[in-house]
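Quick illustration, no need to memorize.
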Amino acid sequence: MGSNSGNQEQPIYSTRAHVFQIDPNTKKNWMPTSKHAVTVSYFYDSTRNVYRIISLDGSKAIINSTITPNMTFTKTSHKFGQWADSRANTVYGLGFSSEHHLAKFAEKFAEYKEAARMAKEKSLEKMELASSPSQESPADIHSPLTPPVTADLCRINGTGDDVTLSDVSPNSMLQSDLSPTTPTLAHSPATNKHWEAELAALKSNNAKLTAALLESTANVKQWKQQLAAYQDEAERLHKRVSELESQSSQTNVIKSQKTELNQTIEELECTLKAKEEEMVRLKEEVENAKQLQTQKDELTKKLEDTDMRNKELEEQLADLEQRLESSQVDQESLRKNLKTLLEILDGKIFELTELRDNLAKLIEDS
């Protein structure tokens, strides 16, 4: 346990997303594993030189996926991506709030996948270098307490991840502590088998403790992050409460301003109503003015007609006066002629009377 306490798994990138897993029965439908967006983080274990994706919903780990070189992160839409984890026998899906967050997560996935590939290659090189001397040393070959390092001894936490030889350092220390007894035990096969069984049990316990420690470390880191997030949220809420309190202290001023605004609005409404009534009155006056203009035009036309008729009558009157004057002249001439004729007639009548009288005297004389 002393050597495992040096494991430091640190979060290197965090984001928030809705977490889904593929339905194990249909292998088609997505099942949400979080009720709301949760923190999804990339972790790096400097001791084991591995990268993991971890997400907690409360105290429950809903994602615990170790990145391997053969993994692929696929963008299926603008805000959704997925990757398959063959060790966990599932497919994880993440729904992000924006395309930018999805692109950033995919970029980090590719970066850490490449880092995992390079780490695996270096680990295999170290394993090959470490196994070469053991093959050249007969003592190591025949010692039952120093078996060759295999992939089975380098898998922890049930993930099957390849790690460096430093992960089995507790076992190496145990082997070095037991190595002085090897010559004595080599002559007893039963004792060798017993110690091999003990060593296997210690290795198994050590692997379990290492996995538990790593899981606890990841949980502690995640809880610290969540606590920091909660503290930030609490600080934000405190600031909001302070703002609301300062706003509540201005409530009276706001109410006074509101009252003044209401009064101003009422005055404006009264003014608007008066203006509307004035507009109605002006419209009526305009209509009356239009009617008066129409009547004026009609009267003007009638006046013009009357003037023309008056001119015609004046011309007729002048003609009649001229004719009357001419008639009067004719009448005066006729009167004079008649008077002359009457004087002549009177002279003739007088002459006829004298002639009658003379004829009567003649008749009486004869």
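The CA atoms of residues 34 and 230 lie 18 Å apart.
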